[in-house]
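User: For my dataset I need records formatted as: sequence, then structure tokens, nothing else. Please produce one.
Assistant:
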Amino acid sequence: MSILVLGVGNILLSDEAIGVRVAEALEQRYHLPENVEVVDGGTAGMELMEAMANREHLIIADAVVTRKDAPGAVVVLRDDAVPTLFCNKISPHQLGLSDVLSALRFTGEFPQKLTLIGVIPASLEPHIALTPTVAASLDRALQAVLEALAESGVMLTPREAQHAK
């Protein structure tokens, strides 16, 4: 099974970085089997097509905007609902991801399963750190990624906590 966890976002725009931070946390906190790849997609678009192609499960972590959810809320969307959400883009990379998903569908390389773990941003202003509201959502978003992996039969083992000496 070939699974890609793709964290996307602009780390210079506060909460836009949440997808990248979720991917980092996954790599730092868990042992990953060979069939699970984690990629920091940053703000890339079509450059990610090869990495996303022909996956059995593609899990995307990103900042998303919905009409009904408050900042910090974690939203999980699956399959056909994902490209639809990117129509309400908050960042140019989401347009790029929408294009990649469309191209993958056109070429017959669309993932068998697609999950979006989205976090509603509180701020998209230029700033390196996440807002406290969205930072508090990081563990919930990571848990949603773990649940998506479990749906594909992947159970991750936590890394040993690093003990200060």
